[in-house]
Design a protein that fits this description.
This protein is an alpha/beta fold. 49% of the residues lie in helices and 14% in strands.
Length: 181
């Protein structure tokens, strides 16, 4: 959603349906309406949109209908059961597939070399078995694999040369210690 907003030069607003209510929705709609009067588009990203109740979803409808906002919602639930019919009828549904094991492994390897956004500032040696372990149990979820990788690197001591070693035993221990992984 953020990339789409940047590419289309639209304002970007995001919030979580878990922590937001009608008051926040109204504020966002007012802000988006002001932007629209100046010819600016607004993309509203709602994470966990299935957590909005019917009234909250209905609160989005007028702004979607009149073009004040472009709504992008993310859900882990079946939208045909969790999103009201009025919003669904004005939506395109895209089902994202889990990443492949190769995709996950590639992402983790990039994270290990990216000094700006990843773990590239650390000198890490990781075994293929550990990478495979993280890729397998993540079930196509990059966030889960990257969180486990980061946790394993940050919780492992460096040796006398400053190298952090992550092997299968470390990977398995990280998973056992953190029930969410």
């Amino acid at each position: 959603a953020r990339i789409i907003a940047k590419r289309t030069k639209a304002n970007f607003i995001d919030f979580s349906a878990v922590t937001s209510g009608i008051k926040e929705i109204k504020q966002v709609m007012e802000q988006a309406e002001k932007s629209r009067l100046f010819g600016e588009k607004t993309i509203l990203f709602v994470d966990e949109i299935h957590r909005f109740n019917k009234a909250q979803q209905d609160g989005l409808l007028p702004s979607v209908e009149n073009g004040t906002i472009i709504l992008i919602g993310a859900t882990t639930q079946n939208p045909y059961f969790s999103i009201n019919r009025a919003l669904l009828s004005r939506s395109l549904i895209f089902q994202l597939q889990p990443l492949t094991k190769a995709d996950i492994t590639s992402l983790m390897q990039r994270a290990l070399t990216d000094r700006e956004r990843g773990l590239g500032a650390y000198h890490v040696e990781i075994s293929e078995e550990a990478l495979d372990h993280f890729a397998n149990f993540s079930q196509g979820d990059a966030r889960m694999a990257l969180n486990a990788l980061e946790l394993s690197v940050l919780s492992s001591p460096a040796d006398e040369n400053g190298t952090i070693h992550v092997d299968l035993a470390v990977a398995e221990e990280i998973r056992r210690k953190d029930g969410s992984l």
